[in-house]
Write a structure and sequence with these properties.
Elements (H helix, E strand, L loop, with lengths): L3 H5 L2 E5 L6 H14 L3 E4 L4 H7 L6 E6 L8 H14 L3 E5 L2 H5 L3 H16 L4 E5 L7 H13 L4 E3 L11 H11 L4 E3 L7 H10 L4 E3 L2 H6 L8
Parallel strand pairs: 1-2, 1-8, 2-3, 3-4, 4-5, 5-6, 6-7
Helix pairs in contact: 4-6, 7-8
Length: 226
């Protein structure tokens, strides 16, 4: 049985739509503070502003990197990580290079993730690897998890929210079975109800990527029942 407070503390609230404005950022930050979510996940250009908006709260700042396609050159990703950390991010959600992965160029994929991890490690910043699971078979999801672990990342994550599908129970099942004992797992994309959120947590997810935070938390009863 999860309480509203417990679920809120697993949420990375996403403010990632390209059309979201400074005013949207401010309103979302206020909502995050009121609901005491774990973090607000923002676009790289919004990290400094988010840090300022959240400064007197417990809400962390997380950000996306090479979003949503993961196709930036590795050196660019490493620089983006450095810049994001200087701007004040606490965690980084990077997109795996999906094309290279599907090409079977696993060495590239590992080195690409590792370049970001090495920058983040020096600053105690967690790295989540978004694999865009909707492009992958279940076997490929397991392989992507193994490569993320090999590269030293902290989390595996399903989706950007901008690719095909979103988080699905079968994806989380594979992630938990493959790396759940040594990495954390973050379903993201299409989580819109209290039941969705709780069922992923019951499956063994550690964090949730959510845009519809208020809808989810408003679906909870005070005692965490539904």
């Amino acid at each position: 049985m999860y309480t509203k407070k417990q679920v809120a503390k697993t949420i990375d609230h996403a403010v990632l739509k390209p059309e979201q404005t400074n005013a949207d950022l401010k309103a979302n930050a206020q909502m995050c503070i009121e609901n005491d979510v774990f973090s607000m996940c923002v676009k790289p250009c919004d990290i400094s502003a988010a840090k300022e908006l959240l400064k007197n709260s417990d809400v962390k700042v997380s950000c996306v990197l090479s979003f949503p396609h993961g196709a930036d050159a590795t050196l660019v990703k490493a620089f983006q990580a450095k810049q994001a950390i200087e701007d004040g991010t606490d965690e980084i959600d990077m997109v795996m290079n999906i094309g290279k992965f599907l090409s079977g160029d696993y060495e590239y994929v590992v080195n690409d993730i590792k370049a970001v991890v090495e920058v983040a490690r020096k600053n105690n910043v967690l790295v989540k690897v978004i694999q865009e699971s909707g492009h992958l078979t279940l076997e490929q999801i397991a392989k992507a998890c193994e490569l993320s672990f090999e590269a030293g990342a902290d989390f595996v994550k399903t989706s950007t929210g901008f690719g095909p599908g979103g988080a699905k129970p079968e994806y989380i099942d594979v992630m938990v079975k493959t790396v759940g004992d040594k990495m954390q797992v973050k379903p993201s994309g299409g989580i819109r109800t209290w039941e969705d959120a709780v069922s992923f947590l019951e499956q063994g997810a550690d964090r949730l990527g959510v845009g519809s935070t208020e809808a989810i938390l408003n679906g909870a009863k005070a005692e965490g029942d539904y």
